[in-house]
Amino acid sequence: MADPVNSEPSAPPASGLVLAGGASRRMGGTDKREVAVDGRPLLVAAVDALRPICSEVVVSADRETLPVRVDRVRVVADARPHAGPLAGLES
Length: 91
Hints:
Blueprint: E1 15-19, E2 36-37, E3 40-41, H1 42-50, E4 56-61, E5 74-77, H2 85-90
Parallel strand pairs: 1-4, 4-5
Antiparallel strand pairs: 2-3
C-alpha cells in the first residue's frame, strides 16, 4: 500500500509538441531550429525542456527530416506546408 503522506501525485501521461516549421522571415530566413541557445540548437533545447514533464515529444515540422539530430522524438510533417502554425497543430 502506498504511503499517501510521502507520495507525490502522479501526472497523467502528456505529449509535448514543438512547432518547428516556418519561413523565419523575421530572422532573415535563418533556420530557427539551428540557432544556438546556450551552445545547443534551439530545437534540441525545446525538446529537452519538455522531456521531464512529457511522456512523448512530437516535433511538427515542414518536412519529416530535421536539420539537427534530435533523439527519441516523433516528427510529423505539415500536411499543408506554408499554412502557418495552426496547420502544424492540425498535422
